[in-house]
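tool_call: predict_structure(chain=1)
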Amino acid sequence: MTSAKRNEHDVEFQPFAGGLPGAVVYRVCRSLVWLYAKLYHRLEVSGRENYPRGEPFLLACNHASFLDPPFVGVTVPQRMAYLAKEELFRIPLFGLLLRAVGAFPIRRNIADLTALRRCREVLRAGHPLIVFPEGTRTTDGQMKEARPGVGMLAAQNAELPIVPVHIEGTFAAWGPGKLLPRPSKVRIRVGKPFRILVPESGESVKKQLYREIGTKILAHIANVDPSGQRLKEADSMETDGKPVTFIETKESPDDGAGNRTP
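tool_result:
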C-alpha cells in the first residue's frame, strides 16, 4: 500500500481535455471573463489584428497578476493553451476547471522538461500557447529578467511566430499581496509577430543562449508599451562566435483597433 502524493505530471496529457463539454466550459468561461474584465476593469484591447489566424504561435506577455492569463486569453480569436503552476491543479474542482480551459501544469524553479515537451505537443497540434517569460508575477510592478525556459521553448519552435503582448493595470488591480481585485483599468496591447533564427551551438552555451532569447522576447513586449519605457536591446547577439538573428517588425500601437467582444 502506498500513500504517494499525487503528481499532476503523471496524469495522461491531453491538450484540451473533456471534448465537447470542455469546449462548452471554455466558451462559457471566456464570455464570463470578458464581461467581468469589461465591466469591472474597463478592459481596452488594441492590436488584435496582429494575432495570426489558423496557425499555432507563442503569445509572450509580461506577468503581474493572476488576472493576466484569462484576460489575455480572451483577446485571442482561437482557443488557447496555458501553462499554470502545478500547485493550482491540486485545488479541488479548480484543477478540473483549469484542465477544461486548456491549462496544464509546470513545476517552477526547475527545468521542467515534461512541461516543455507538452508545450511542443500543443504547438504541433496547431494550438496557440500563452507563455510568461518572467516565469512568475512581478512583486513591484516592473518587468523582471527572463527565465531560460521560454528561450528554450522558442528555440525549439523557431519556425513559429511569437506575438508580444503588453498588459497594463493588473498589478494595481490584483497584484501579489492583494486580497481581492480592485477596479483598476486594464489595457492590453498586441504587437506584431516576429520570428527568431537560432544557430547551432554547443551545450556549454545553450543556457546563455536561452536567456538571451528570453531577454529579446521581453524587449519586444516592452516595446509594445507606448508609454516610452523601453528595454535596452541589441540588434543581434553573439554566442560562441555565431549570431542569433532576429526577424524584426516595427510595432505601431493602435489605441482602438480590435476592441471587440469575442
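agent: Confidence is low (pLDDT under 50) at residues 1-5, 228-261. Proceeding to next step.
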